[in-house]
Design a protein that fits this description.
Length: 734
C-alpha cells in the first residue's frame, strides 16, 4: 500500500508541474494576443489613415516633421508611430510615439480593460519633459503612468512623437481624425516637399515576416515533454499494479473498476487543481485585472491540465483493457516494445535538451553581456543624478541670454567639490560615424582616426577608479590645468592628432564673455599616458554601446579647469547628460536642501536628484527576465530527462525482478546485475557530449556531463533500493 501511495504522490507532483506548464502556456497565449492587439492598433479603424514616409534625406527631415504636425494641429487630428523595441530575445516589444488631439484617438482595450487611456495620453502630451513616457522604457524616472503588461511578455511604451522621430522621420504613421480629402491634401503636400511620387506615401515596401518566437517553441516543447513524461509515469503505475489487476479480475472486478481504483485519485487531483492553477495564473500573470474575460482564461489553464491528464491516461487504459488476466498475474508485458518506446522518448527529450542548450549557447555572449551590464549597473544604482532643474528666476539663462544660472551652479558645486561621495562623472562615445562626419564637414583641423570614449572624472572619483593615480596630477587639475589621461596604445602620430584635437575642441568653446576659470585665463594642458589595465564602466544605456572600455580619454575635471560649455553642462539633466553625481540619496538630499541652495541663489530652481536605479530599472527587469527564462527552460527539460530515465529504470527493475532476485540471491553484485543499463546510459551520455562538442556547444557539454552524473546516481540508488525485500517478496509469491 505504501508503494501505491508513493507512486500516486509522484503522479500528482507531475500533474502539478504540468499545471505550472499550462499556466505558462495560457500566459504566453495571452501575451501573444496582447502583442497582436498592439501591432494591429489603428489598422482596422475606418477614420484612421496609414502614411508611409521613407527615403527622406537628413536636410528634409525637419521640414517633413513640421508639415505633419502642423496639419494634425490644424485639423485637431491624432497621429501615432509604432517602432519595434526588439533587441534579440532579451528585450522585446514596441514603443509608440503620439501627438495631437486625444479626442481623435482610436479606442484601445483588451480583455475588457482600457489600455490606452485618453486622460493619461493627454497628461503625457502636456508634460514639460520631452522624455516623459507612459510605461517604462529604460527606467521609471520619466514614467508618469503604467501600461498593463504580462510577466515574461513584451514591453510596451508610449512617448511623445518628438522622441520617436528623433533619429529619423521615416516610418509608418497612423493619422486619425482626418477626412479623406484632408488626408489626400497632406499626401500631395508631402509629395511636393520631397519630390516623390504620392503613391510612395500610400504603399509600404516592407514585407512582414511571421516567425514563431523562441518562447513559443519552448513552451510547446514543455507541453509535449510533460505529456510524454506523464504517459510514461502512468504506465509505470499500471505496471506496478499489474499483478493486482489479474487477481481482482479473477475475484469478479471489472477492468473499469480496477482502472478507476488506480487512477481515481489522479483524476480527482486534476479537478482540484483547476482553481489552484487559475489562481496561480491570476497572481503571476502581472495583469492585475479581474474582468470576466481574464478570469475565464485563468480557468482555461486548469481545464487544459485536466484535458491533458485524460489524454495521458488513454495509452494506459488501452493496455489495461487489453491485457489477459493470466498475463497480468505473472506480470508479463511486451518488454521489447516498451523498452523501444521509452528509449525513443528518452532520445527525443535529450534531443530537445541539446537543442535548447545549443540555442542558449548561441545567445551566451548576449546573456553574458546582459549579466555583466546588470552587475555593473547594480554597483552604481544608488548613485543620484540631476533629474530636474526649473528656470525659476533664471529665464534669461534658459534662453541663453545670460550665464547667471551656470555661475550659480558652479559656485554651488565648488562648495561641495572633493567632498566624499560628490563626483563629476560623464561619458561620451565618439564612434566611427561621428569621426567620419567631422572629416566630411571639416569640423576640425586635426581629427583622431579611431573611435574613442571621452570621460569626465572629478579627481576624487578618478582616485577611486585608479587608486595608484599620482596625487600631483590631481593637484594640478585643481589648480586649473587640463590634465588628460590617454592610453599609451596610441601611435606617435595618433598621439599628436589627439592632443591637437583636444586643444582645438576645448578652445572652440571659449569666448571673452565666458565665466573665467583658471584654465580659461592660462590655457594649460598636460597629457599623461597610461597602460590600459582595467575595464572602465561606460555608463552606457543603449544596446549598441559598449558596457566597458579599457582605453578612454579621461579629463580630470575640476571647477577650475572646465570651459564655459562644460560649466553649462553642470546643470544638464537625465542620466546620459548629467555631470554631477552623488554616491547616495542622503548626500543628494543634503546638498539639494532648500536652505543650502539658497546660499547660491538656487532655491527657486527646485533642484531634484533621483537614484540611478529609477533610470535603469526597466533595463534591469528585462535582463533579469531574460536570464531567468533560459534558466527555467534548461531546468524543466533537465527534470523531464531525469524523470524519463527514472521511468526506464522502474520498467527495467519491474520487468526483470525475477531474474535479478535470483542473481542477487546467488551473490551477484549490483554492477553484474545492472551493468547493461548503466553501460547504455554512459554510452548515451558520451554520445551526447560528443554531439555537443561537434556543435561547439559549451553549455550543452556542461549540462550533459552534469545531467549524466545525476542520471547515473539516480539509476544506482533506485536499482539497488530494497533489493533484499524484493527477493523475499518474489520468493513468497512464487
Amino acid at each position: 500500500m505504501k508503494k501505491k501511495n508513493t507512486s500516486t504522490y509522484v503522479l500528482i507532483s507531475l500533474l502539478i508541474m504540468q499545471g505550472a506548464i499550462c499556466t505558462l502556456l495560457v500566459l504566453n497565449c495571452l501575451s501573444n494576443m496582447y502583442n497582436d492587439k498592439w501591432k494591429n492598433y489603428g489598422e482596422n479603424e475606418q477614420k484612421t489613415h496609414k502614411l508611409y514616409i521613407k527615403d527622406i534625406s537628413n536636410d528634409k527631415q525637419e521640414q517633413i516633421r513640421s508639415l505633419l504636425l502642423e496639419e494634425v494641429d490644424r485639423e485637431h487630428a491624432f497621429i501615432f508611430k509604432k517602432v519595434s523595441l526588439n533587441q534579440g530575445e532579451s528585450i522585446r516589444g514596441m514603443k509608440m510615439g503620439v501627438y495631437g488631439d486625444v479626442n481623435s484617438m482610436p479606442e484601445f482595450d483588451f480583455l475588457d480593460r482600457d489600455i490606452v487611456n485618453k486622460k493619461s495620453v493627454e497628461k503625457l502630451l502636456k508634460s514639460e519633459k520631452d522624455e516623459t513616457t507612459l510605461g517604462v522604457l529604460n527606467g521609471s524616472a520619466n514614467s508618469i503612468g503604467n501600461i498593463p503588461l504580462f510577466n515574461f511578455g513584451d514591453n510596451f511604451v508610449i512617448e511623445k512623437l518628438k522622441q520617436t522621430t528623433k533619429e529619423t522621420v521615416n516610418g509608418q504613421y497612423y493619422i486619425s481624425g482626418l477626412d479623406t480629402a484632408k488626408f489626400d491634401s497632406l499626401v500631395n503636400d508631402l509629395a511636393k516637399a520631397t519630390k516623390q511620387n504620392r503613391d510612395n506615401f500610400l504603399i509600404s515596401n516592407r514585407q512582414e515576416s511571421v516567425t514563431a518566437a523562441l518562447k513559443d517553441m519552448f513552451i510547446i516543447g514543455f507541453v509535449i515533454g510533460s505529456v510524454i513524461l506523464n504517459v510514461v509515469a502512468n504506465m509505470i503505475l499500471y505496471l506496478l499494479r499489474m499483478k493486482d489487476e489479474g487477481k481482482y479480475i479473477l475475484m469478479g472486478w471489472s477492468r473499469k473498476s480496477f482502472f478507476a481504483m488506480c487512477y481515481q485519485e489522479i483524476i480527482n487531483a486534476a479537478f482540484i487543481l483547476i482553481p489552484i492553477v487559475a489562481i496561480a495564473l491570476f497572481v503571476f500573470s502581472g495583469w492585475n485585472n479581474s474582468s470576466i474575460s481574464f478570469i475565464s482564461y485563468c480557468i482555461l489553464a486548469g481545464l487544459i491540465n485536466v484535458i491533458l491528464m485524460f489524454i495521458e491516461l488513454i495509452p494506459v487504459a488501452l493496455t489495461c483493457f487489453s491485457v489477459k488476466p493470466i498475463n497480468a498475474i505473472h506480470g508479463r508485458v511486451p518488454k521489447k516494445m516498451l523498452y523501444m518506446s521509452m528509449s525513443v522518448v528518452y532520445l527525443i527529450v535529450v534531443g530537445m535538451l541539446q537543442g535548447s542548450c545549443w540555442y542558449v549557447d548561441g545567445l551566451k555572449k548576449s546573456i553574458d553581456e546582459n549579466s555583466k551590464l546588470l552587475s555593473r549597473w547594480e554597483k552604481v544604482s544608488d548613485y543620484n543624478v540631476l533629474y530636474d532643474l526649473l528656470p525659476g528666476d533664471d529665464q534669461e539663462s534658459f534662453a541663453n541670454n545670460s550665464n547667471k544660472l551656470s555661475m550659480d551652479v558652479l559656485d554651488w558645486y565648488k562648495s561641495m567639490e572633493d567632498k566624499k561621495g560628490v563626483y563629476i562623472i560623464n561619458t561620451s562615445e565618439y564612434s566611427s560615424s561621428i569621426i567620419q562626419r567631422w572629416k566630411d564637414y571639416k569640423s576640425y583641423k586635426n581629427i583622431p582616426d579611431k573611435p574613442f570614449w571621452y570621460f569626465y572624472y572629478s579627481p576624487n572619483y578618478a582616485k577611486k577608479e585608479i587608486p595608484d593615480l599620482d596625487s600631483k596630477l590631481l593637484d594640478e587639475a585643481r589648480n586649473g590645468v587640463r590634465v588628460y589621461l590617454l592610453p599609451d596604445t596610441l601611435s606617435k602620430k595618433e598621439k599628436i592628432k589627439v592632443e591637437k584635437w583636444i586643444k582645438e575642441d576645448t578652445e572652440s568653446n571659449i569666448s571673452d564673455d565666458d565665466i573665467q576659470t583658471s584654465f580659461e585665463r592660462n590655457k594649460e594642458y598636460k597629457f599623461v599616458y597610461y597602460k590600459p589595465k582595467k575595464k572602465f564602466f561606460t555608463w552606457g544605456t543603449k544596446s549598441k554601446e559598449k558596457i566597458e572600455t579599457d582605453s578612454p580619454y579621461i579629463l580630470l575635471t575640476t571647477s577650475e579647469n572646465i570651459n564655459s560649455v562644460e560649466c553649462d553642462n553642470l546643470r544638464a539633466e537625465t542620466l546620459e547628460n548629467t555631470m554631477i553625481k552623488f554616491e547616495n540619496t542622503k548626500l543628494a538630499d543634503k546638498y539639494s536642501d532648500i536652505k543650502y541652495l539658497k546660499k547660491y541663489h538656487l532655491n527657486d530652481n527646485k533642484i531634484k536628484f533621483i537614484a540611478v536605479r529609477e533610470y535603469i530599472n526597466g533595463i534591469q527587469k528585462s535582463l533579469r527576465t531574460s536570464i531567468c527564462w533560459f534558466g527555467v527552460v534548461i531546468g524543466i527539460l533537465s527534470v523531464i530527462v531525469t524523470g524519463n530515465l527514472l521511468a526506464i529504470a522502474v520498467l527495467y527493475k519491474k520487468t526483470n525482478i525475477k531474474k535479478n532476485s535470483i542473481k542477487k540471491f546467488l551473490g551477484y553484485s549490483n554492477l553484474q546485475m545492472h551493468g547493461k543499463i548503466s553501460t547504455v546510459v554512459i554510452v548515451a551520455v558520451i554520445i551526447e557530449i560528443l554531439i555537443a562538442k561537434l556543435l561547439q556547444c559549451r553549455i550543452g557539454m556542461l549540462m550533459t556531463t552534469l545531467l549524466g552524473i545525476v542520471q547515473l546516481v539516480v539509476l544506482k540508488v533506485y536499482l539497488s533500493k530494497n533489493a533484499v525485500e524484493s527477493i523475499i517478496t518474489e520468493f513468497k509469491e512464487n
